[in-house]
Amino acid sequence: MESAIDKHLKCPRTLSRRIHDEYEPPFAMWVARADESLQQVVMAYFGVQFKSEQKAIALKAMQHIVQSFSLDNGPQNHDITHHTDNQGYENYIVVGYWRDPGAYCRWFRSTEVSHWWDSDERLNDGIGYFREIVIPRADQFETLYAFKEDLPGVGAVMDDISDDIQEHGYWGSARERFPISQTDRMLANGELHIISGDPEKGGRVLVQGHDNITLIRSGQDWVNADEKERELYFNEMLPSLQAGMDFLRDEGQALGCYSNRFVRNVDIDGNLLDIAYDIGYWRSLDKLERWAESHPTHLRIFTTFFKVVTGLQNLRLYHEVSVSDAKNQVFEYINCHPQTGMMRDAQMT
Amino acid sequence: MESAIDKHLKCPRTLSRRIHDEYEPPFAMWVARADESLQQVVMAYFGVQFKSEQKAIALKAMQHIVQSFSLDNGPQNHDITHHTDNQGYENYIVVGYWRDPGAYCRWFRSTEVSHWWDSDERLNDGIGYFREIVIPRADQFETLYAFKEDLPGVGAVMDDISDDIQEHGYWGSARERFPISQTDRMLANGELHIISGDPEKGGRVLVQGHDNITLIRSGQDWVNADEKERELYFNEMLPSLQAGMDFLRDEGQALGCYSNRFVRNVDIDGNLLDIAYDIGYWRSLDKLERWAESHPTHLRIFTTFFKVVTGLQNLRLYHEVSVSDAKNQVFEYINCHPQTGMMRDAQMT
Which cofactors does it use (chains A, B) (predicted)? Predict the structure, then answer.
């Protein structure tokens, strides 16, 4: 057993863990590892928002974004999702992961990419676009997997999987897997602000974030699950999960949840895959913790998971959580409805 | 709002809290306060164990113990409970609270009390007796009340009620209400040992404890509750509570729960009152925390409590939790069945 915090990210603590050194978790879980060359990662969510009748245009736009990932300096990993939001809009999101922010910058600043994104044509495509990009440093994110191979998300751009880790199985363990938690509470400062544009008018809107906005990606993959595990997922877990995710989407604002999207993976043609995850933005990690450890829907998911985790074979459950500095965030919306992403809770300045 | 840790018990921290300084709990709760003259309290559980056919003798024994509390240096507060254990024995427990361990010693060493307890007659009464006494220092216990008047248990021997306190509403808050948690993790050392007698043979058995055995008293009082609150208690809370308490009683050993008794208050004649509490002994506070924050029955109790707490009028919910040094514990059993109290998990030496 080893700490979730990798050796090269350890430092003298000013903040202690909840658990004592001899704590033993009730079952094994693992985290992704990367060597010191990984300094900062880019998690870039590119969205396409549309009404059903514009599906053909939206699909093409999504495919264009995916194709742009093949250009020089493109991401090392990506996946594609679909969801319908609570305003009745469909959304494709293509998320790319870069292990090197420099490569991301070179990619984004390439003519093909930046011209496409910045072009006025995007304002006239008849659909919406958004990009939500956070660039956490190596000490600003944590992962947790109930499996050890073919890591999804940020894990795919890292090097390896850990040995069994100690910091899991108790509330507060996500925080304690963050290397920065050794010395920093990751508190929010400031508020979301509209710094350009007007959500009600459409067009381009830029939202300014603040330090320590917390992004969680929490996923389930039942591609290779047998009937029994599918039953477990669909009957025992999904109802609570869906209720919890709907609650956060519709009523999360009061709790500090800026945006919550429960998305389903799709292939390049938009066909549904047996993979899903939630993308949640929170004002700060402590707000996410309070919800996770007290809301009945999440507690039900959690107790079910505890009950079945040691028997899981091919139902793959995991999450990744990050915080980022305001200066390492980009939130841009083009012709999206005003409830989209960070716009909903952002103040006009 | 103020800290659950009283001013005179604050000290420079070596261990940090889970919460940040600006944390605001979702609703108000309170703790008992005492001035610096309270250095250490005695929580003394005196038990009478019997088969139903010996009820008359047992009742007399229980009444004798209660009457002895009126002698000089008796406790400032006491109450009486009844429960049937999982071996089919009934038990009366009289619990006394002393604010001054010196007074307790003088009381117990008085001829009337010590002679009665030490007399060989107790071996021949045809019923069992036990005493479980823990004497935590002021920094070794915490309380939590969802009400502010007529505090039960240890609160009744203290001076006052706090203002709204900060450390509640999150997992780990019980620990963080302990003054000693500022510098000490309250870890268990050693094991329970039989130091005299043999549980299988009956007679007198003494069990040696170890540092930081954790005692929780967690109570409900529906004496003045109206129909709606009784319904809430009996229909929404009690089923989960009963299931959780039965689980700990019967299967708690593997989790570090040494003993669990869900008891009902009675009057001096043994008539049931509308007051109940659980008396749980744990190897250490972290074992109790792990159970409380992960077991479905407790999570259900917890989420129900969260839902209804702000509306509670006369359903009184509270708990008190203590740890104690091995040298400040007494566990003695006289003709009790070998599953009683600390005997079940104690090793013969």
Answer: heme b
